[in-house]
């Protein structure tokens, strides 16, 4: 049995019609669908149809029906006005990106205080078939709109594992915890691929994306426990409101904690940022996590962070994301 979230099967839509004038047209619409060979299932509340059906129906109802009283939903979610189906249909291109695995990875070095490369973060990059780039925010926005976030997260994760096979350093790989139904089911393909490639699990660091938006702490704990059981390491990014207490951090027991760039850039001269950086540092050390500052762009900020106890660093100062892993960092005073 496959995971529906990881597939790009045809979307199924439920339709509900609330207004008498629209309901009087239902027989005519059903006869039209029958002539076209479009499969429509009748329910107590309305119809169930595939994407071809709703495309045709949406065009028709905009011209001939009161669209304000027509609603749709997918996957038993809440009902929405039919006009909100348009961005879902417009984002159909994301299915092809996922099906064809049109994903590559760039490497960005993570260094220690002596400029030794400790690890690389593997960052997903997306290309159309003509070779042009698609920006990550466009990709993930389309996937979320269309309900493909789960499948996109999986293909990015699997691609990153393959790219990690080129390294002899740790690989930081992002994942979205809300895009995982069950760690035991959804993550086993990641584990299997790592084993197939013969990569020591301890060389992987799975990094929680959007830490501050995690609402289900128990679900995240299950995911991280699964990774830990399989020998992987894991990191939390900017620890915001989601993990505001030391108790929550102790429960999660991250191996690494990343200070967000908004507190890193300009920290050498900004007392408010310094206070936040030191608070974050203490929280990391209290749970025995390695503190990592990301988004470092100036030597001044690097030196301040290093002198105050940060152990790992990432940012344009040391190297931009690149299709090939940087072999060493030069030209910076330590």
- pLDDT under 50 segments (min length 5)? 1-5
Strand content: 15-25%
Report the total helices.
14
Number of self-contained structural domains? 2
The protein's oligomeric status is single chain
Q: What value does the average pLDDT take?
A: 86
Report Rg. Answer: 24 Å
- As laid out across the biggest beta sheet, the strand order is 6-7-9-10-11-12-13-14
Measured as a percent range, the helix fraction is 25-40%
- Report the CATH C-level class of the largest domain: Alpha Beta
* CATH topology description of the largest domain: TIM Barrel
How do the SSEs run, as a string of H and E?
EHHEEHEEHHEEEHHEHHEHEHEHHEHE
The CATH architecture category of the largest domain equals Alpha-Beta Barrel
Protein name: EAL domain-containing protein (Putative c-di-GMP-specific phosphodiesterase class I)
InterPro entries: Cyclic-di-GMP_PDE-like, EAL_dom, EAL_sf
Organism: Falsibacillus pallidus
Domain EAL: 87-334
Give a structural overview.
This protein has two domains: 4-90, 2-Layer Sandwich (Alpha-Beta Plaits), CATH 3.30.70; 94-314, EAL domain (TIM Barrel, Alpha-Beta Barrel), CATH 3.20.20.450. It is 39% helix and 21% strand. It has 14 helices and 14 strands. It has helices at residues 20-23, 26-36, 51-64, 86-90, 93-99, 136-146, 149-164, 183-186, 188-196, 217-229, 246-252, 261-264, 271-286, 299-307; strands spanning 12-17, 40-42, 46-50, 70-73, 80-81, 103-112, 117-127, 133-134, 170-175, 204-208, 233-236, 256-259, 290-294, 312-314. The strands form two sheets. Strands 6-7-9-10-11-12-13-14 form an eight-stranded mixed barrel, surrounded by four helices. Strands 2-3-1-4-5 form a five-stranded antiparallel beta sheet. Helix 6 (136-146) packs across helix 7 and helix 7 runs parallel beside helix 9 (188-196). The chain starts with 11 loop residues before the first strand and ends in a 20-residue tail after the last strand. The relative contact order is 0.10. This is EAL domain-containing protein (Putative c-di-GMP-specific phosphodiesterase class I). Residues 87-334 form the EAL domain.
């Amino acid at each position: 049995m496959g995971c529906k979230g990881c597939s790009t099967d045809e979307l199924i839509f439920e339709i509900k019609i609330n207004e008498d004038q629209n309901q009087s047209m239902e027989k005519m619409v059903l006869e039209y669908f029958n002539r076209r060979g479009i499969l429509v299932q009748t329910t107590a509340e309305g119809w169930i149809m595939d994407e071809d059906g709703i495309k045709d129906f949406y065009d028709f109802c905009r011209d001939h029906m009161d669209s304000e009283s027509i609603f749709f939903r997918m996957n038993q979610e809440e009902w929405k006005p039919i006009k909100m189906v348009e961005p879902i249909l417009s984002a159909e291109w994301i299915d092809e990106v996922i099906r064809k695995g049109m994903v590559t990875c760039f490497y960005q070095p993570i260094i220690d205080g002596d400029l030794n490369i400790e690890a690389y973060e593997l960052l997903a990059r997306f290309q159309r078939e003509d070779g042009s780039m698609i920006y990550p925010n466009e990709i993930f926005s389309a996937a979320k709109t269309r309900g493909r976030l789960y499948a996109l997260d999986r293909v990015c994760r699997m691609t990153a594992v393959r790219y990690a096979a080129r390294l002899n350093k740790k690989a930081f790989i992002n994942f979205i915890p809300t895009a995982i139904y069950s760690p035991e089911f959804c993550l086993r393909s990641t584990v299997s691929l790592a084993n197939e490639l013969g990569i020591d699990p301890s060389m992987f660091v799975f990094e929680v994306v959007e830490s501050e938006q995690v609402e289900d702490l128990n679900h995240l704990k299950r995911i991280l426990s699964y990774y830990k059981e399989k020998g992987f390491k894991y990191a939390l990014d900017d620890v915001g409101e989601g993990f505001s207490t030391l108790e929550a951090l102790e429960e999660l027991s991250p191996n690494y904690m990343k200070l967000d760039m908004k507190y890193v850039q300009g920290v050498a001269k900004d007392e408010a940022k310094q206070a936040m950086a030191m608070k974050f540092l203490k929280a990391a050390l209290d749970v025995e996590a390695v503190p990592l500052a990301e988004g470092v762009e100036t030597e001044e900020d690097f030196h301040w962070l290093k002198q105050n106890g940060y152990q790992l660093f990432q940012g344009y100062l040391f190297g931009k994301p690149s299709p090939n892993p940087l072999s060493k960092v030069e030209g910076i005073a330590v």
